[in-house]
Amino acid sequence: MPERKQITFALLGFGKLGQGFYKIWQNKKDQIKEQTGYELILTKILIRNEHYERPKNVDEKLFTHNLDDLLNDTNLKVVVDVIGGIEPIFSIIKKLIEKKINVISANRILLASKMHELSDLANTHLIHFLTEPSLGGGIPVSVILQRDLVANQVTELYGIVSGVSNFILNEMTDNKISLNRVLENPDIIKMAESISIIDYEGSDSAMKVSILAATAFGIDINYLHIYAEGVSEITLQDIIWADHFGYELKMLAIMRDHAECFELRVHPTLVPKEHPMISVKGEYNAYYIKTDLLGEYMVYGLGVGTEPTSSLILRDLIEIGNRIYNNPRRQRFNFNWNNKRVMDIGEIETSYYVRFPCVDKPGVMGEITTIIGKHKINISSAHAEIGKLDNKVIGYVHIFLEKTRESHLYSAIEKIKALKLIQGEIKFFRILDED
Ligand SMILES: NC(=O)c1ccc[n+]([C@@H]2O[C@H](COP(=O)([O-])OP(=O)(O)OC[C@H]3O[C@@H](n4cnc5c(N)ncnc54)[C@H](OP(=O)(O)O)[C@@H]3O)[C@@H](O)[C@H]2O)c1
């Protein structure tokens, strides 16, 4: 049996994740002790509101609302941050780091906003600072990129990072129902960390992308500066036409490492039906990674919930134990920050599908394609179909564009919008095209 070594830790926060983790830690700690020799000892739980009723099965002596109880505990080795928001937790974590207490953080918004400052402080005080549980699932993607693929140059990464958005698009696609109908499904509420985290506008995905870009590529970007669209504008018509042309809409995070700059965006994307990412269904997440040595590589696993997140928190507690006890001189947490510029969305180049609702009469397609040609954009195919808008029969022109700069597409659409033949909103989607 391995030698027993103690890892004392405190929880910061005791909400949905904190309580879920507590149960899993209780069920797993003996097995972990047997397998690894590490005794994971919970010493304190920092809470905000001392008057809330806490679960009866938790020893009430663990709870404290006084941060000094942690700061003055000279035996405390690790804190696990399962609080949300930026302040006061940012200040709290800084104080704990200054006391040389190691940190595991699942706090997405904090890391997506303050990663650089916190990691610099962690390096200054030579503590271990582990952030992967904040990605919200159980896939160890940061560690795969940092450690397992260390000899590779990762050129592209596509991620399905929002289990809830993936579930929504999947339900719309498989059952041909509207977004509102999907939102009536009670599973959505259970799946989302909270109703406010249903990622309608893509900001939760942008937070994950910001954290992953930092850990995997050394890109320092606040999530508010990442281009993100969510599922809020997706209509059943979008789903049906995508299917008609051989695609499925997937909410994708796209990261590409260019020589001079970095491409980073998250939005619903048309993915060809034969692409491996199509097989990622329901609340699952996946990362499709392209590297120079490995070619194409895909990891897949549960993307939401306290169980998968707790799996990573427990792994990180053991990892900190390994570093403290077996390898104390090991390099502490260390981002290789690089100062590559992140491209503006108008600068990206990809292929597109554009849908023009228009009057149903001859010559319409010619007028539209002429304007597109004047913007030096190549058309790969164009189709005219009859469809319905507000119960009225109208024409639709569907145009697929070869790779073009996005700002050129904006200019062409502006011009086409002014044509009298246009009958409604012109909609476009970026297509997943691989280099
Ligand atoms: N839920 C998940 O599956 C999941 C997965 C991955 C990451 N995360 C991340 O984990 C964090 C927590 O998520 P959650 O779903 O557990 O949220 P939650 O249910 O709202 O819980 C947050 C907890 O933090 C506590 N808290 C807030 N401010 C505090 C302060 N100043 N001092 C001490 N405690 C404070 C709250 O205390 P009171 O009880 O006293 O109000 C509450 O117990 C978030 O950052 C989220 O992004 C969650």
Task: Supply the key terms.
single chain; 435 residues; alpha/beta; Rossmann fold; Dihydrodipicolinate Reductase, domain 2; Alpha-Beta Plaits; 3 domains; eleven-stranded mixed β-sheet; six-stranded parallel β-sheet; 27% strand; binds NADP nicotinamide-adenine-dinucleotide phosphate
List the helices and strands and how they pair.
Layout (H helix, E strand, L loop, with lengths): L4 E8 L3 H21 L1 E9 L16 E2 L3 H4 L6 E4 L7 H10 L3 E4 L2 H17 L4 E2 L10 H8 L5 E7 L2 H13 L3 H5 L2 H6 L11 H15 L9 E2 L7 H9 L2 E11 L3 E12 L11 E8 L3 E8 L3 H21 L14 E2 L6 E10 L5 H11 L4 E11 L2 E14 H12 L9 E5 L4
NADP nicotinamide-adenine-dinucleotide phosphate binds next to helix 1 and helix 11.
